Amino acid sequence: xxxxxxKDNEGSSKNRKRVGRxxxxxxxxxxxxxxxxQKARSGVAINGFEGxxxxxxxxxxxxxxxxxxxxxxxxxxxGRIQAAIDAGKLDAKATVDAAALKAAGVIRRExxxxxxxxxxxxxxxxxxxxxxxxxxxxxxxxxxxxxLQLLAxxxxxx
Length: 158
Description:
alpha/beta, CATH 3.100.10.10, 4 helices, about 20% helix
């Protein structure tokens, strides 16, 4: 196969409709916009308008709220940590904290801290310093002979 022999599959791309190009084209005169009225003019987008009926976003009740003060943790599984150790990106003898995980490319950014989750198996004996961990994750770390240190959380603003 050569570059000049490459072509699209049959029917994969259509030619665009050229509207408003004479009545013989079948899409001339009004160009598929019907006759007169607000929607026949340019620059009209009436999103969410339901013809005077109460719109759905006003008929439905408001629900829930988003706490802007909630801590946003980066979640890391034990399997992901073990994979990084196996790949030689993390040193099992050094403490594994947010900075080490970031340097190893396991996490992209630290956010409000790292929370360790129990997915996967941990074989290495590591010391993990994190903002939080699930109970099963803590048990797996202890079972592998490692230790878990949780960072003190700042008191909630009252």
